[in-house]
């Protein structure tokens, strides 16, 4: 397993971790100043702005864009809504390319009829693959914790995400892979086997770290800093790296009541320390 | 699939649904008066009381005890704590027998080291089987929703629960099976296949209904009444019955801010109506 003390250049900061307190230019500067090698911005920080200029700022700061968050939910109540989401996601994939991101993150959404939602996700991903290929952007399907199954994601396990990858790309990976976030997968009794499977198919497109607090007050916006919760971070990182993953370790923490209230500097310093000590 | 309008005698009320507002004698009377055929009490209502007398009251009311809730968490921080929980669970299994319950419900607990917790659960169940057999009580292992993986249950999927059953009873069911609660399993992309598997092994010892509210405020105590949420109740009941299950359909709703504030009568009337209309 890599020693992250020697690989801070392979650690990345997902900007949501900093609570969107400052314009993207300041966030880029702060992330680079703390020694990280990567950054993963959100659409709200980028869309409608000078994307090429932001891409240049990121490059000039010596940072790699490790992901672009995230898809518009794919399932729709009507066919038109579904098709509109596909168009919207195509535009976002083009923005990801312009920003210099190799990866577009897919959080797929859900419906009351979860079986129908799952069918729409498979169809929708199929409709996005050619566009993603033409833009040179890979699609990182993120299985979400089952607590979000009613609204944020009908894809709830790594096995299910990999099954969809295999269904759409039976001859192996070209455009589609998975994003593994410890918050979403740590509880899964099948996780070690599925990480190995993902690695064998070279389908691991990203690895997110944070922690599950024992006293989680809000499953959406009360994530913990690495080391403050129950997740076996080193066990999961070891599994991912043994499966062949050599990409970035990206921190992503949604924390309305705690980290988002702190300064960017304090959060980034803590992330750096915890990357080395417990991740 | 059974028409529950004709099978209210095969519908049961888990007493937690009524918020523990009244002594067990009143609860028994109310459940019977509303036409249900079963009741599933909790230890807090029974332990330290005249168990045989309560058992007689339940029988006299024409009710069947469909389950007894629930186990003391099995994993312990020390070996002594682990062994104490086994002893405690043996006593509770004896109480279940005295109460006339064929089934003792196992909610197994967890630890920060979830892998260690899982090993202790398997060992602990092994230590309980002989005692359960001698008392004539089956052990219903309940996989819990992954949102509880840090504290309430290291067993998070139906597949995992069935794997443990197969490991401990490789030649088929004698004492160990699963309790399937829609709240805990509805999100699982593998659920239909695992229900079928559970049925083939005759391991389905209970079926709980309620609903997952789209706007869940608290994953522990904000469960919905059947029909108020997103769960495909009829799809799951159909699968369970097609897998051979002919036992009770038991309602279990934890609802601090809503149903527990209503009268027992209002809740029981609503349960009866929703059993027939949407379950």
Describe the secondary-structure layout:
Two copies of one chain form a homodimer.
Chain A: E1 11-14, H1 24-33, E2 38-40, H2 43-46, H3 51-60, E3 64-65, H4 79-99, E4 103-106, H5 114-135, E5 138-141, H6 158-168, E6 176-181, H7 182-185, H8 191-200, E7 204-209, H9 233-242, E8 249-251, H10 264-277
Parallel strand pairs in A: 1-2, 1-8, 2-3, 4-5, 5-6, 6-7, 7-8
Helix pairs in contact in A: 4-5, 8-9
Name the largest protein-protein interface in this structure. A-B, 30 and 30 residues
Q: Report the uncertain regions of chain A.
A: none
Q: Strands across the major sheet of chain A, in which order? A: 3-2-1-8-7-6-5-4
Shape label of chain A: globular
Secondary structure: helix percent of chain A: 40-55%
Strand percent estimate of chain A = 5-15%
Question: What oligomeric state do the depicted chains represent?
Answer: homodimer
Rounded mean pLDDT of chain A is 97
Most strands sheet of chain A = 8 strands, parallel
Total beta strands of chain A = 8
How many distinct helices of chain A? 10
Distance between the termini of chain A: 11 Å
Order of helices and strands of chain A: EHEHHEHEHEHEHHEHEH
Secondary structure class of chain A reads alpha/beta
Radius of gyration of chain A: 18 Å
